[in-house]
Fold each of these.
Amino acid sequence: MQANPIFDADLIRRYDKAGPRYTSYPTAVQFHDGFDESEYRRQATISNARGGPLSLYFHIPFCDTVCYYCACNKVVTKVRAKAVPYLDDVYREMALQAALFEPGRPVEQLHWGGGTPTFLSPDQMRELMARTGRHFALKTDDTGEYSIEIDPREADAGTVAVLRELGFNRMSLGVQDFDPTVQQAVNRIQSEAQTLAVLQAARAEGFHGVSVDLIYGLPFQTVDSFLRTLDRVIDASPDRLSVFNYAHLPTRFMPQRRINADDLPAPAVKLSILEATIERLTSAGYVLIGMDHFAKPEDPLAIAQREGSLYRNFQGYATHAECDLVAMGVSAISQVGDSFSQNVKDLETYRLMLAEGRLPIERGLVVNDDDKLRRAVITELICHFELDGDAIGERFGIPFADYFSTELEHLAPFIDDGLVRVDGNRIQVLPVGRLMIRNVCMTFDRYLDTAGERRFSRTL
């Protein structure tokens, strides 16, 4: 099992800069509009030739109210009827997508995200899952990893029962913070009782795992106030936690303009919250999977990390690296064959393209051999905190030390600061360096000079 991280505030301040989260490599910044439907179809053919299971993602963009911190692609509305034409469009896209893939490829993973997926009515959710089962080979024995993002304000025990009936066995609960002052400042009024009722219902219905999402760095948060929320969450004993660093980017995300920057905790306070959070969670028995994810030692994520099979994709850390990802809905990102692709981001364009019988692809990227090599390097580092360069060299047919000679030289500051140890072609990220793992990965990213730091959040 990985040793617990060591918190060094001075080093963290020194390495705190903007950088990718590496849910993909190359990152979405490199996607371009030269990637079109014909290329996607070619990549689906490559995927079919390789075979293997699939992962499906559905983006449900609707939210009843806006959370001011949110950076997701969403449509804020109280008009539930807006879901009807959108679902009709999703069904059109699903039919187009399903026709590209060999029938019978099992769906090992399925995820509904948003927005708020439970904005849909129970009947609409049943219809969406039924249509999915007609087009794709869903697993009916409860062995797939079928997950959904839940806003506890938009769900109750009845909702949870419907989701379990449909085959969902994992859920992620959005909490962010239980403190009333913080909730008021970010326009997310959500009681502890609401949250725990959904969590308890998930357990009663036999969900395999429940994750809780928290955010630190929100207005009016202090170390003590955040630990009060954290202690309540620990008492509820979720299987996983995601503790995200709030990235205040009001020029990019309009809802964040409603947050008063003067109310945000100072950088030193944020670091203290992070340090206290890591100490409290590891003391409670959780394992730091990487970056901002924690899990119980018996959770599949922790097991995959110990076994060296952990993976990272657009949903974060994952356990099914072998799955091509087919994503549907506005702004959804697919990973098929040797490509990434993203759908258009607005409802009207999405509707018009599907009405014309076209896949609603806006941009994408075909990865080259160098991209695949660097993706493997970054994945090993960000998932397992170590890299066997000889194994990578043998796998890709390259002399590792020669190919990455410049990158290895750039690791010198990390080595000098005790963040990384290099022994021959083996790279190990030490406990004090694990919180700076994004910085270590950036050393191997050949696109950073062209991407520009302004496109990314701070690494810590």
Amino acid sequence: MTVSSNDQHRTDPSGVLNLLDDLIAKARAAGADAADAVLFDSASVSLAQRLGKTEKLERSESGDLGLRVFVGKRQAIVSSTDRSTKALDELVERAIAMARVVPEDGFAGIADPEQLARSWPDLDICDSEEPSSETLIERARIAEEAALAVQGVTNSEGADAGWSRSTIAIAASNGFAGTYGVSRQSLSASVIVGTGTGMERDYDYDSKVYGADLRDAAEIGREAGERAVRRLNPRRVKSCKVPVVFDPRVSRGLLGHLTGAISGPSIARGTSFLKDKMGQRIFAPSITIVDDPHVKRGLRSRPFDAEGVEVKRRTLIEDGVLTTWLLDLRSARQLGLQTTGHAARGTSGPPGPAPANVYMAAGKRSRADILAEIKDGFYVTDLMGMGVNGVTGDYSRGAGGFWIENGQIAYPVNEITIAGNLKDMFLNMEAADDLELRFGMDAPTVRIDGMTIAGM
């Protein structure tokens, strides 16, 4: 099913688009040459329990809106949680006064009418059913009990269950008006094994748009317990240079480093290690990476971007070659390009590029086949610290996981650092065939040869 923006405007049961239209009309009447506005209405419930006792059960509701006005090439942004007529009149007055005194920005502005999304698919990203508190409590109970039942587990850090739903509305003086809802349900468990200085911890987690799509609570608990048990009695290893294999739980973080490096503002400022790499091979030829905002029930799916611009599936890396930047309107104008429909924003700041559902396509070989060739190597399951330099690509992070000997997982390892440079890491990367689309940024098991291990 496809929904047009005009249909959305006519079927506005909560009146949020009418509210934004009125706000924009007031801004135009007060002297704004152009304006746009965003609104978020959200509700959430969070539950935490530990050792069978509920430690937290909280519900929160919030509503916030933001107005951006343009006076010539000057822009100002104001936000408010008060939607009374008096408060909105004052909001407009403050925004216009601010816009008249700030410096000009030659690249700022709303979208041209031909850039706007006129229709969009039904992405099924909002579950209308809110789970009861009893349902959340039961999920957490099952997960924690399953984790504690794993032999070797000695304590629990608890289980958490949550739900949230938000309405997002965007309108602008160029004629765009659109609204959609998003929902999330989540469940996690974290447990401890061992005693004294020999304690280790691990967790498992799942998040979905629909509660019915969540993994079984007992499965999440068991996986948390089994992961923790496998970490018992870790060893240290000597410093060396070996192949490093990233578990899917951490390999998706490599996609975050890529999307940050190809973000329009970083390219425009010249502060990215990939600033001169457009059209060049920056990954191994076997690697393809996709950004798709139209994944059904996707955690990062969206029908249009935060500037009302049409969004579509894009291949960021095709056979190892960089094909596009991630652009909003402003960064696109800076670079003399067209927006790619990646704008995201809150209520108190301007738009900026952000990816949608990003995934690395599955490779052709299995995880077992990739491991089988490694005489000595390191299998990463956890990363710590933020030692990544976006300007140079230098990469250095604390890590934990397992040593690989003769193609097999041999024993747990912790207190080491893995290091390299993302330019080399990308070029020496191989993806396994075990991709699962779970979190909105996903990758299969990934092998990278030639990384440095700093150990004993």
Amino acid sequence: MDVQETTAACRDAFAELASPACIHDPYPFMRWLREHDPVHRAASGLFLLSRHADIYWALKATGDAFRGPAPGELARYFPRAATSLSLKLLASTLAMKDPPTHTRLRRLISRDFTMRQIDNLRPSIARIVAARLDGMAPALERGEAVDLHWEFALALPMLVFAELFGMPQDDMFGLAAGIGAILEGLSPHASDPQLAAADAASARVQAYFSDLIQRKRTGPCNDIVSMVVGVHDDDADTLSDAELISMLWGMLLGGFATTAATIDHAVLAMLAYPEQRHWLQGDAVGVKAFVEEVLRCDAPAMFSSIPRIAQRDIELGGVVIPKNADVRVLIAAGNRDPDAFADPDRFNPARFYGTTPGMSTDGKIMLSFGHGIHFCLGAQLARVQLAESLPRIQARFPTLALAEQPTREPSAFLRTFRALPVRLHAQGG
């Protein structure tokens, strides 16, 4: 779509977001969609919201105006769910549940997956960051190019999850190798071979976590899996093994690729806006502001992947969304809505300085972690990894530069990378 010349309505925003032009830079099209077709009905019948106010309201209204698909409706939204392990696991995740089931499951995992537990990981995260940078240093100092995406952005969340789950690092690298295949298979437009590859990878993850749960039950350690399967004298309720496997599978999928993509985008922001690096050289409040602005400018998940079903006819912007329609939100477009964030295409960490996480100085909510009852369970873990990484990268490699243009994955859903080659010193420097 030529955004400069378009006057007619877009037939299918999801297809347009998958185009090479949007993979390279989706924001001109998102701007057009927000201005001309903010309550978009795609060819498949899905509705897509792109204005910040509409997205914020829809996320907040989940559990009221919107609900997840009921078990009897899964075939409608996931026609291959009857034969696909990956789709069955997706249907059982926390993000697909409504109260009171959602309330129970979230309470049980939040009981142990606390802010304190995540903060206790900070020394381990700092150690992992230092080790990965140490590993990159010799090649960089020899003037060679290093793929920061593979050597750091992917490796860090993998190793952090290994610490969190109490797994050997090699085991986590083995499981993580299949995450890309699973995410591709969960796309609404996935082919049968892609879904089969996703199911094979999901089966390996399911079998591993089933064995891990049993090992933690007999030999608990100081990790999240041991805590969740452990006995709580003040709480008789527990997660079943199937519920816990689904939870771990969902955490791995939701927190691995997205965190890696955000680290990549943060490094690109450091390189593109050197005048903003001072935020990473001061106090934790400045680092936090830089991290929040990266999350706003480049949300790793473009749109919501989970169906939200309208519980009644809903009118937004003069468009009626009928009862039982499937509604998704275009998170990345909302984050760059000028009605929410002034000069939204400008990278400006000052808009988040001194505020609570996710809120701008104007009181607007950054949408990358969602909102409402389905707010991302791993948001704080992702923020800690970024906060521990970026100042150390800046201090260790102050002359870091792109060796060549990064390569992106051809995904309409996740704005992720295949490679991010970097080296020390700019060309001719």
Amino acid sequence: MSESEPVLLIIGSGLKLYREYLVSSIHRCARAAGIGLVLLNNLKPTWQQAYFDEIIHTDVFDADEMLASAREVAGRRRIAGLMCWDEPVVLAAGELAAELGVPGLSVDGVRGCRDKNRTRTVLTAEGLLQPGYALTTGLGEARAAAARIGYPVVLKPRAMGASIGVVFAADESEVDAAFGVAMGAATVDQSRYGGGAIVEGYVSGPEISIDAAVHKGEYLPMFVARKETGDQPYFEEVGHVVDAGDPLLHDPALMDVLARAHRALGVADGITHSEVRLTDRGPLIIEINGRLGGDLIPFLGRTATGLDPGEILFSVATGHRPVVTPSRHAVAGIRFGYPDHDCLVHAVEVPEDAPGLVLASPMIDPGTTLRLPPGGYLARHSFVVCEAGDRETCGLRLDAAAALVRIDADPVDPPEPGTAFEMPAGLLDVDEHEGVSA
């Protein structure tokens, strides 16, 4: 990599299991365009070495340290674009993109995506369908907000992702416990928006997510994922299904709501992951995230539609309008394995062969303790991915593959009352632990 060659700056690689397919595509695009790749990463590199021209070991979760490292690179290299798909880092990365003058969500856009309270405020002012809501920091505030909004309500951390700490409260008797769970999760978030809980009116209806590119303000949907969640009062995500022929991709009302929301938030260029409830009053945006979806949703999208999210991300990050026309018409889904109770896991075995099986993997190391809500979140031990020609067949194949997962575990006692919110010690990467970010 010569000093005159432009470079693409990537903030955090993520887990090999979750993100290598993206990095591989970005590497291919960069080589074809004559652009180098520089990675800022929180752990020393292993698998990343095959794809990046330079890797700088820095704490990307410390905004000051990350920005100092990025500015050092910008002082000696021409930055052609910037990418980040890690939720805790997207805010600082988006502000850095504006500072460097490269395509990005815009400062207003990335702040509006990261701060759920700001999202609600902006979308309500735009006249879009939204629930009643209030940002609270104390139990008294939460009780008063719930009474004012009307039951049932949902309590959630101000800035967490993956439905962590999101709790349903049917009536006044359930608010105190729900607030404790939401605030417990909020304390994990060390960003500037951490530490608060939002109380909002509950809305019923199927929940979906939409991954899309935004180019110079134009909203370009890639694929829709139908979300499967666990039982109330918690909303843990247990699976997703992407259908290349999903009619929602061409639903005028849904697309109008999404385009208006992105304009109102000031999202200019980048990739977003929007979560929407399909209510009897129309589409209601739950949140918009300034990054690609987690849970391998982009991988499902590629499997089902043929669209390569890495290529699309590269196009947007370097200022080009991406092509979002599907080349495949299939259905792909993922199912996560959860234990029935808190347990200490000794081993996880996943199937190597099953009808339509695309990918299967354990998600934890032996010796990991998994705790279900409210004692912990993301208590996943494995996943399976299957594809088929239609949704019904895909669902049956996911059922069959998930039934082949074997887990050797012993039950453990529940955490003591008042114990801090727990996450699994780490997701299993082939080479290393890189935390729980997906």
